[in-house]
């Protein structure tokens, strides 16, 4: 597993990365997400059909293991 990096260094080319963020309830989360320039932010699926704009604090490259989840 790669070390976490500051979100400011994450790719903003639409590629999927693993991000780390805290939700409104203060719960730490790890999600696959993409930067969406058109919507100006990071978006992650919270379930199989719902996307949410999030404010991640760090990231790492998505691994092959992440894609199987």
UniProtKB/TrEMBL annotation:
Residues 48-69 are annotated as: Disordered. This is DUF551 domain-containing protein. It comes from Manganibacter manganicus.
């Amino acid at each position: 597993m790669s070390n976490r990096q500051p979100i400011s260094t994450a790719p903003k080319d639409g590629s999927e990365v693993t991000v780390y963020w805290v939700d409104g309830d203060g719960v730490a989360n790890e999600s696959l997400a993409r930067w969406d320039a058109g919507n100006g932010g990071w978006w992650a699926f919270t379930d199989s059909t719902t996307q949410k704009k999030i404010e991640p604090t760090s990231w790492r490259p998505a691994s092959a293991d992440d894609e199987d989840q």
